[in-house]
Design a protein that fits this description.
The chain has two helices and 14 strands; from the N terminus they run E-H-E-E-E-H-E-E-E-E-E-E-E-E-E-E. Strand 9 and strand 10 form a beta hairpin. The longest helix is centred in the first third of the chain and has 11 residues.
Length: about 150
């Protein structure tokens, strides 16, 4: 196990995962990169970004968070990247990804110097935002995930 990557089994229940899918999948738009541009050679998926959802912040035990609900259809992916981001107001302190379903193939989350994280529905992988990682192409089905970034000064 990499010292900066941690897996929490059953972080969310299957019912909580399904509720998130039903709540957010109708709000999706084409994903963009941090600079707001779209580049389907780097990232091809659909996302919905939102902040400071009180119930989710309680689950993640952090007050200031940004969330990203993501849908990956067949051939969708996100190539190697880090989540680190800093502005004058905040910096991303921790990254989290929760797998919301398992009726797809491919779509594994892979970390540099660690490999593929073996996740089941409701499992969370948390890691420092500077670690390079990717979501491999989905082969069949649709992959849903919730990304959560803990922010601070």
């Amino acid at each position: 196990m990499h010292p900066e990557i941690h897996i929490t089994r059953n972080f969310l229940t299957e019912d909580q995962c399904l509720e998130l899918i039903l709540t957010y999948r109708g709000k999706l738009y084409d994903s963009s990169l941090r600079n707001g541009r779209k580049n389907k050679n780097v990232r091809d998926s659909k996302t919905y970004l939102f902040r400071n959802n009180i119930e989710l912040c309680k689950l993640f035990q952090h007050r200031r968070m940004q969330f990203q609900f993501t849908e990956y259809n067949p051939n969708n992916f996100y190539s190697w990247h880090s989540d680190y981001y800093e502005t004058g107001r905040y910096v991303r302190k921790q990254s989290n990804t929760v797998l919301l379903n398992d009726d797809f193939t491919g779509g594994e989350i892979e970390f540099e110097d660690y490999g593929i994280a073996d996740l089941n529905v409701g499992d969370r992988v948390s890691f420092t935002p500077r670690i390079l990682h990717q979501v491999k192409p989905v082969l069949t089905g649709v992959r849903y995930s919730l990304v959560a970034w803990a922010e601070g000064l």
